[in-house]
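Interim report, section 4.2 (structural modelling).
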Amino acid sequence: QSALTQPRSVSGSPGQSVTISCTGTSSDVGGYNYVSWYQQHPGKAPKLMIYDVSKRPSGVPDRFSGSKSGNTASLTISGLQAEDEADYYCCSYAGSYTFLVVFGGGTKLTVL
Amino acid sequence: QVQLQESGPGLVKPSQTLSLTCTVSGGSISSGGYYWSWIRQHPGKGLEWIGYIYYSGSTYYNPSLKSRVTISVDTSKNQFSLKLSSVTAADTAVYYCARGESPDAFDIWGQGTMVTVSS
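Predicted structure of the assembly:
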């Protein structure tokens, strides 16, 4: 199973909004409402930011939002802050027979 | 709150078996509905799902690793474990244990442990 496709990098200025895309297939992103997003700062474990396409865990700011259209999921971060600079990974469930879980290759967000 | 902590050797020889344990504190591993998971990250690379054991005991593995992976749980110790056999340098990575609330939602992670495969 190939990794989901994400842009290698995105950037934005403080206060702006950025969107990170995650493209899969009808066998993963497009087939299930099980898409999540993780934030990872250097040397740290990933942190769940969005799950089940658009749900936010408790404690995650509402500046973070998720959506999906067809085989592409998106993470939007509004009101960018310096601490949002990190790597972001999407993740999708990909099968009821194999219970395969697949991650995207990651996107480096730079806050200018 | 629930916390996870990985433990195990940081250095494994090629062809041997990598064994890691994840200790769950602040909650019971037997509580229902969770996917107790292993995920790894090669140096400077992205995340790779290894597999998980559902609270019922059912296991699910990444097809690319399935022939070499075993995930098990020890409810008496509140731990779950990873065994990866016949390791090569390509298995050098940071290994994370994580709790999944749903198949994609890994809400609690251990700090990660670096495992190097080298003679």
